[in-house]
Design brief:
Strand content: under 5%
Distance between the termini: 44 Å
Number of helices: 12
Helix content: over 70%
Shape: flat
Order of helices and strands: HHHHHHHHHHHH
Number of strands: 0
């Protein structure tokens, strides 16, 4: 790869980086909020089975198909096209983001459930004895402990979601992979372009992994030794 082509390719790919990070961050935030809601619903009498079905559905089907179903499938219903949601659902960005959020929520919900199950009954009993309400027990005891326990597994989900954003290029969103595909279509130099994109994703994954490891050390100093 000559230096001029490499420089142009790198700059073009980095131009799609803000959209890649935007989709990743919003998908993780939206998925985490839904995951908390799902785990609260699991505590109710009738909410357990719908949540289990949702998780089974979104974990059992490919994310690419979910993106296609939201972007292409919903638009085939006249009821959707005539609704107030159509200005949102006809936009590739929002359809891609919704699909990422819904997919992430299914995985994060299971990760958080594992963290919640790791909370010792003794911690909850001690909080009850001290007179804390159920809401305070959940927000101050159960949820913080669950998050710390779930953080290592959630770190993998963060990296997976970062890479999964590349799939929205199939619905014409110009994030890094979409830009790479456009460059290849015009230059036919697939190896150089996609190799450059892969290196960028590798660097991003390494940075995210290091940041989350530092956060894990900060939240659980007793496991790694005081810093």
């Amino acid at each position: 790869m000559d230096n001029a082509f490499f420089s142009q390719t790198l700059l073009a790919l980095l131009g799609g980086l803000p959209l890649t990070l935007n989709l990743t961050l919003l998908a993780l935030i939206g998925g985490a909020l839904l995951a908390v809601c799902f785990n609260l619903l699991r505590l109710t009498r009738f909410g357990h089975y719908p949540v289990r079905f949702y998780i089974w559905l979104f974990r059992g089907t490919p994310l690419l198909i979910q993106i296609f179903m939201i972007y292409y499938g919903l638009g085939s219903f006249e009821l959707v096209r005539d609704s107030v949601l159509w200005p949102v659902l006809r936009e590739p960005y929002w359809c891609g983001l919704i699909a990422l959020i819904l997919n992430d929520a299914a995985y994060t919900s299971e990760i958080l459930r594992g963290g919640l199950n790791a909370v010792s009954p003794q911690s909850i009993e001690a909080a009850k004895v001290s007179g804390m309400s159920s809401r305070k027990i959940f927000t101050r005891i159960t949820l913080p402990i669950a998050v710390r326990q779930a953080l290592p597994a959630w770190s993998n989900e963060v990296i997976s979601m970062l890479k999964a954003t590349s799939l929205v290029s199939t619905i014409s969103l110009m994030e890094m992979t979409g830009i790479a595909d456009a460059i290849v279509s015009s230059t036919f130099r697939a190896l150089e372009v996609f190799l450059t994109a892969a290196v960028i994703y590798l660097i991003l994954s390494l940075l995210v992994s290091r940041l989350l490891t530092l956060l894990e050390h900060r939240l659980s100093p007793y496991q790694f030794g005081a810093r």
